[in-house]
Amino acid sequence: MEFSPSDSEQDPLLLSNLKAKGGYGTLPFIVGVDTFEKMASIGLMPNMILYLKSEYGLQNARAVNILFLWSSATNFMPIVGAFLCDSFVGRFRMVSYGSITSLLGMILLLLTTIQPRSPCHQVSESCRSPTTFEFLVLYTSFALMSFGSGGVRSSSIALAVDQLSKREKEEGILERFFNWYCLLSAGTTLIAMTFMVYIQDKLGWTVGFGVPVVLMVISVALFFSASPFYIKRKPKTNLFSGYAQVLVASYKNRLLQLPSQVNYELYHNEKEHMTQIPTEKLRFLNKACVIRNPMHDLTPDGRASDPWSL
């Protein structure tokens, strides 16, 4: 069951249930998924060009281009994941979808090592060029891991912060958490660039690609095992709708005159927002939040009766 801040404020029972969840004890389960996902992605990258050249017979230029596109997609997808998380999905679901998708990509990449093939850039009677289907499986595994990275990396830290209460944050647990997370990220990179690469060199591609799969399976299982104890907040609004409402309301109110004096009572503002007075930048958009008739424009709880006009 998921909770939103507005629900907890209205219902004392929901508030008590919300406080019973979370806590710093849930943080290792959340960070574990993020850690092993990064370890797998970083650990697979250094030797991947050798894998593409030796097992798929690719030239340097094409192999480098493939890895560049994979790396670029992996670094860009957290932006997409953050938008989907805040607008539609929510943090817990985004981490869940991302971890499962990343795991599927790793499994698919592992399956590419099962079919033995002779390198076509070497003289061999059994030389066989990879088929279109084999390339499709390889590219699909890269895509799944990139999408999974976008889901996990965009939302895992935010989900972890949701688990901490105000008292725990005031006690400095949040600062210590970020310190340990940065240290863990550095350690993960070091292990991935040494230990994982060593396994691939000494024990072969199947074992080298299989270890990340095993680690990811364990981390995903632990993440979902602690699911009943997580605080799961719902996304508040669709960002695209919010932007569209501002533009439409500004156009509807284009004939209004902005208040000549700074008076926060003339501007509509949600209770949870800290900003009371619009800035002087892009002032024409300020007309979207000018209150014309409080009795007509606002509901009894102070919200806009028609967000497309106010």
Task: Walk me through what this model shows.
It is a single chain. This protein is mainly alpha-helical and 310 residues long. It is 65% helix and 0% strand. It is built from eleven helices and no strands. The protein has helices at 5-10, 12-20, 27-56, 60-89, 91-111, 132-162, 166-170, 173-203, 205-225, 239-252, 294-297. Helix 8 (173-203) packs antiparallel against helix 9. The longest helix is centred in the middle third of the chain and has 31 residues, at 132-162. The protein is elongated and about 75 Å long. The chain starts with a helix and ends in a 13-residue tail after the last helix.
Brief descriptors of the model:
single chain; 310 residues; mainly alpha; 65% helix; 0% strand; elongated; disordered N terminus
